[in-house]
Design goal:
The chain is α/β, with parallel strands linked by helices. Helix content is about 40%, strand content about 15%. A seven-stranded parallel sheet has the order 3-2-1-4-5-6-7, with helices on both faces. Strands 8-9 form a two-stranded antiparallel ribbon. Helix 1 crosses helix 9, helix 3 packs parallel to helix 4 and helix 4 runs parallel beside helix 5. It is globular and about 55 Å long.
Length: about 300
């Protein structure tokens, strides 16, 4: 506790999964947290949850993929708390299409959400940090899809890969200001099992380019999916002085998947199945158990 004491964190995204859990984790470590979402209900619900735990939080509403909103949101966080020391970004929506069925709207929306949103949140947060003389930490959520090719998900691959390399360049530019820029690349998230069970994860319904949860699990040596608490823990580390000599780095959360030989599938030998994983899975929101959520996969 107290690793982020008296710091101000600006979190772009307020879902009860990744962004909301990360905001909660920042607050538990002593940060005052401004949470942003395009939906007022989501931002206010996240801030209310954090305040209900006895921590400081403030809800902001806007679309950080639009320059005027991105500028305003950072200014409002600074006006409310005096400065920004930490920024965490999870802006964007995923659109799944094969290349031959790709439509320009969804392609552009992917790039605007992840890449333009990442640039604008960095631009205005970095300006605020530099003007205040803050040695800040900027953290973007990327994905293992930024490093590898996933059939049926090329818009997401392209947007996240662009964001990854944008962050490397930003880290170089912002180093003289003592502002660090790092990324987190998780693999398949467990909350997808109760958020999008049929929509995303059934190749029998959606064709051979849709990867199933089993496909992911069988490639993860540690034998479980990533969860929002894993990301919150990594984000706290990257936000804290413990990582003060890290910038331009990608924090990989894949359970060992990329370290293994490409043709080795641990689940094929150990008997790991999605059904086994779900049996012991504990749905969670904001990093805490959510027993009201029922999983049907």
């Amino acid at each position: 506790m107290g690793r982020l004491q008296d710091r101000v964190a600006l979190v772009f995204g307020a879902s009860p999964h990744i962004a909301g859990t990360t905001a909660h984790w920042f607050a538990k470590e002593g940060a005052r947290v401004a949470v942003v979402d395009i939906r007022a209900e989501a931002a206010e619900r996240c801030a209310a949850f954090i305040k209900g735990k006895g921590y400081e939080a403030h809800a902001l509403v806007g679309d950080p993929t639009q320059e005027a909103d991105a500028k305003r949101l950072v200014a409002e966080a600074v006006a409310h708390y005096g400065r920004v020391d930490i920024m965490f970004n999870q802006v964007g929506n995923q659109y799944r299409h094969t290349i031959m069925d790709m439509n320009l709207h969804d392609w552009n929306a992917s790039l605007t959400g992840y890449l333009t949103g990442g640039m604008l949140t960095t631009k205005y947060t970095a300006r605020a940090m530099a003007e205040a003389g803050v040695a800040g930490s900027i953290i973007h959520l990327v994905s293992d899809a930024a490093h590898q090719g996933e059939a049926g998900n090329t818009a997401y691959n392209a947007a996240k890969a662009g964001l990854l390399n944008f962050c490397r360049g930003a880290a170089m530019e912002l180093a003289p200001h003592r502002i660090r820029v790092n990324t987190i690349s998780p693999t398949f998230m467990d909350h997808l099992l109760w958020q999008y069970p049929a929509k995303m994860l059934n190749p029998r319904i959606h064709g051979p380019h849709t990867m199933s949860a089993d496909d992911f699990l069988k490639g993860i040596p540690l034998g479980r999916f990533c969860n929002a608490r894993d990301i919150g823990n990594a984000a706290v580390f990257l936000a804290s002085d413990e990582s003060s000599f890290m910038t331009g780095q990608d924090f990989l959360l894949d359970g060992g998947a990329r370290a293994g030989y490409y043709c080795w599938r641990p689940g094929a030998h150990s008997g790991i199945t999605t059904e086994d994983a779900i049996h012991d899975l504990e749905p969670h929101q904001y990093g805490e158990p959510a027993p009201h959520i029922k999983i049907s996969y």
